[in-house]
Amino acid sequence: MNVEFYERIWMWAAVGLLVIFVGTIVLTAANDAVRPPSHIETVDPAALADSPEYGNPAVAVRPDGSIVVSVVTQMYSFSPDPIVVPANRPVTFRITSSDVMHGFEVVGTNANAMAIPGYVSQFTVTFKRPGEYIVGCNEYCGILHHNMVGKLIVREESR
Ligand SMILES: [Cu+2]
Fold first, then answer.
1. Measured in angstroms, how far is the CA atom of residue 32 from the centroid of ligand 1?
2. At residue 159, does pLDDT exceed 80?
3. Are 102 and 141 in contact (CB under 8 A)?
């Protein structure tokens, strides 16, 4: 098959672009721990009050010692608030919304997810630095969006 010289250049240029784009994804995933969502789980946003997990959202310790934080976002707050977790232990956040789309970002860390009504956003992070962190909503959710701020307290673990 005969491929014109210029056509061949453009074909290889397209392949080169693909390599750059895929390489960028691989690099950010490996170096910056940026991950696509890997969890699809639904929950009825109108029945959160009756849900065993979200009726009274809280920090729970699993039998294996890992930490699970169930979070409900609503206009204009996070529950629970403050969230208290230990340092240097994997913490799994399971976030949903009871009304509109919100954000859940632990400022200064890579903990950042959308809270979408009807869905559970889940991710796991380990906080190495004890202290107080600001939890911010980074999706415009209404007239008082700028007041939607919570607190995460990372405690030094006592041994
Ligand atoms: Cu908001």
1. 25
2. no
3. yes
